[in-house]
Amino acid sequence: METCGNIGLGFKKKKKMGRRKLEIKKIQDKNCRQVTFCKRRKGLMKKANELSILCDVDVGVVIISNNGAGRLHEFSNTNSVTGILQRYKSHIKEEKEISGEHSKYSSMKIGELLQTTERQFEETNADGFAVTDLVHLENELQTALIQIRSTKVFLQSSVPCPIGIASF
């Protein structure tokens, strides 16, 4: 007689040690299905807890069984699954708003999109600088930074600097 773990799982009898490959299909025997459900539910909850601890993330698991009672099983590493679901809903709402903005631009023709981009590019920010001014300033800062780093290398090396800067 086969054990409960083998019924309906498609195990092939082999004389090898270790894990056996199993075919995922519905377990026909109700008692075996319930035993497997309990064991796997416990394992899933354990993995969810480990994930929350190892990766410092909020995890929520909701399982509703399909037996006559339809029992609810839940796990949350925070105070409640409800809080995680509320955060999930707010993220979905934000993503819809972002995708709505994206669709606003995707419906534009290329010429309109270029004009809108140029208009935004030339608008001034709160400091009174246009974007082109800021790009030019960034390039100047990068050039100055390169010069400063090369001077630093000269100062740290034993070779005297050709510019005439005395080392410390």
UniProtKB/TrEMBL annotation:
Its main subcellular localisation, reduced to a broad class, is nucleus
Q: Which GO terms describe its molecular function?
A: DNA binding; protein dimerization activity
Q: Describe the location of the MADS-box domain by residue ranges.
A: 17-79
A Pfam family that the UniProt record links to this protein: SRF-TF
Annotated keywords: DNA-binding, Nucleus, Transcription, Transcription regulation
Q: Name one GO cellular component term.
A: nucleus
* Designated name of the protein: MADS-box domain-containing protein
Species of origin reads Capsicum baccatum (Peruvian pepper)
